[in-house]
Automatic annotation (TrEMBL):
It comes from the Eukaryota. InterPro entries: RNaseH_sf (IPR036397), SH3_retrovirus (IPR057670). One of its GO terms (molecular function) is nucleic acid binding. Pfam families: SH3_retrovirus (PF25597). This is Retroviral polymerase SH3-like domain-containing protein. Residues 48-106 form the Retroviral polymerase SH3-like domain. Transmembrane segments: none annotated.
Length: 110
């Protein structure tokens, strides 16, 4: 239940970029007049190594990225939304997704 809100927001983001037979185009095209870019779409719940900004890093030699769970797109800032282990949302434009991750590991009960 902890990801329902994020899942609904991301599903809506995807639906607005999906062709509809009712309007014979995508809702996004209807609103903005051009085709949507879908290259940023990722699998909900997949993991990524997310860059830690220099201002938030600890001492020299510390980690420069963290492994976080992808939970959607922030439409206002055009950043990806990630959730950490304490269920806080982290926004970032700099992430490397683990595309070859085992599906059962991605959707475990953590």
């Amino acid at each position: 239940m902890k990801y329902w809100g994020e899942a609904i927001m991301y599903a809506n983001h995807i639906i607005n970029r999906t062709w509809s037979s009712v309007i014979d185009q995508t809702p996004y095209f209807m609103l903005y007049g051009h085709k949507p870019d879908i290259s940023h779409l990722q699998t909900f719940g997949s993991y990524a190594m997310v860059n830690i900004p220099k201002q938030q890093r600890g001492q020299k030699g510390g980690p420069i990225s963290r492994r976080l769970k992808f939970v959607g797109i922030d439409n206002a800032s055009k950043c990806s939304r990630f959730m950490d282990s304490s269920h806080r949302v982290v926004l970032s434009r700099s992430a490397v997704f683990e595309e070859d991750a085992d599906w059962s590991r991605i959707h475990s009960n953590d």
